[in-house]
Design brief:
Radius of gyration: 19 Å
Low-confidence stretches: 1-13
Shape: globular
Strand content: 25-35%
Mean pLDDT: 89
Order of helices and strands: HEEEHEEHEHHHEHEHEEHHEE
Largest sheet: 6 strands, mixed
Helix content: 25-40%
Structural class: alpha/beta
Strand order of the largest sheet: 6-7-8-3-9-10
Number of helices: 10
CATH class of the largest domain: Alpha Beta
Length: 269
C-alpha cells in the first residue's frame, strides 16, 4: 500500500499494528533503507534477518522514531507514526535496544517501574494496576527474584532481561527487540524468546532483530531477509531460509537441514 490522499483511511482499515510503506531512511547523506515495506499484526513475531549492515537496526530505529524517514510512510495502529506525541507513542510501542545503558543507584524493581511512566498521572502517581503490570513483566522475564538487587550487581544477561521487563511493563501494542538474546546463555535465550511468544499470544506484535537464524526459525512466524537495505525475501522461515538465498545474502555457503521443529542452518567450514 502506498501513501495517498486517502492513505490514512486505508491504513486505519488495515489490521496492522505497525506498517511501513516504501520507507527510505538513513543517517545524514547515507541512505540505508531503500523502499522497505513491512506489515506487523497483533499476535505474530516477525524476525528481521540479514548480514551486518543490512539495515535491520535502522528499521527498528525508524519504528521507534530515532531514525527519521527520508521518504515513505510509517503507521502505528492505523495512524501515521509522525502524528504521535512521545508519551502517546510510548503507550503503544516499546523498544529493547542492543545495548541499553546501565543506570546507577537504582534497584531492579525501580528500573522496571520506569516502564509505567507513560501511563502514570503526574499528580495522582502510580496505581495498583501499575504495580501489577510491573510484577507481571518481571515474572514473565524471570527477574522477579532480582527485584531488590542494585542494578550494579547484575550480570550482562540479567540486565538484558531487566530491560525487557521494563519494556513489557509499558503494555505496548508493538514490541521492538533489537538482538534481545545477545549476552545471554542458552537457558536465558530460551526464556527471552518464550517471553516474546507469550506477549505475542496476548495480541502484541513483536518485531525481532536476530543474528541467530536457528533461533529466528524457532520463534518467528515470518522472517524478513534484508541485504543492502532492501527486502530480498519474506515469509515463513522454512521458505525463506534456503541454502541458495542465504549464500547470496551472507556471502558464505551454508547447509539447511529440515527438522520437525523447523530448519537448521549450518555454515560450511
Amino acid at each position: 500500500m502506498r501513501a495517498s490522499a486517502d492513505g490514512s483511511r486505508a491504513a486505519a482499515a488495515d489490521d496492522a499494528l505497525l506498517r511501513f510503506d516504501d520507507v527510505v531512511a538513513g543517517y545524514g547523506r547515507r541512505t540505508v533503507l531503500h523502499g522497505v515495506d513491512l506489515t506487523l499484526r497483533g499476535g505474530e513475531v516477525v524476525g528481521l534477518i540479514g548480514p551486518n549492515g543490512a539495515g535491520k537496526s535502522t528499521l527498528i530505529g525508524v519504528a521507534s522514531r530515532v531514525v527519521p524517514l527520508t521518504a515513505g510512510t510509517a503507521w502505528v495502529e492505523g495512524r501515521p507514526l509522525a502524528s504521535y506525541g512521545r508519551r502517546e507513542l510510548a503507550r503503544r510501542l516499546a523498544v529493547v535496544p542492543q545495548a541499553a545503558p546501565l543506570p546507577e543507584g537504582f534497584l531492579v524493581v525501580e528500573v522496571v517501574r520506569m516502564g509505567r511512566t507513560p501511563h502514570v498521572d503526574a499528580w495522582r502517581g502510580p496505581r495498583q494496576v501499575d504495580e501489577d503490570e510491573v510484577e507481571r513483566a518481571m515474572r514473565t522475564t524471570g527477574v522477579w527474584q532480582l527485584a531488590d538487587r542494585p542494578v550494579e550487581q547484575l550480570s550482562g544477561g540479567e540486565w538484558q532481561r531487566v530491560v525487557l521487563a521494563r519494556a513489557l511493563a509499558q503494555r505496548p501494542a508493538v514490541l521492538l527487540l533489537d538482538e534481545p538474546t545477545s549476552h545471554l546463555d542458552l537457558r536465558y535465550q530460551a526464556e527471552v524468546l518464550m517471553a516474546a511468544r507469550t506477549v505475542a499470544a496476548a495480541g502484541v506484535g513483536v518485531l525481532l532483530v536476530a543474528h541467530d537464524l536457528n533461533l529466528a526459525a524457532r520463534v518467528c512466524d515470518r522472517v524478513m531477509l534484508l541485504t543492502d537495505g532492501r527486502v530480498v525475501a519474506e515469509g515463513p522461515p522454512a521458505r525463506v531460509l534456503s541454502p541458495e538465498r542465504l549464500a547470496r545474502a551472507y556471502l558464505t555457503e551454508v547447509d539447511v537441514f529440515d527438522t520437525p521443529r523447523g530448519p537448521v542452518v549450518v555454515p560450511r567450514v
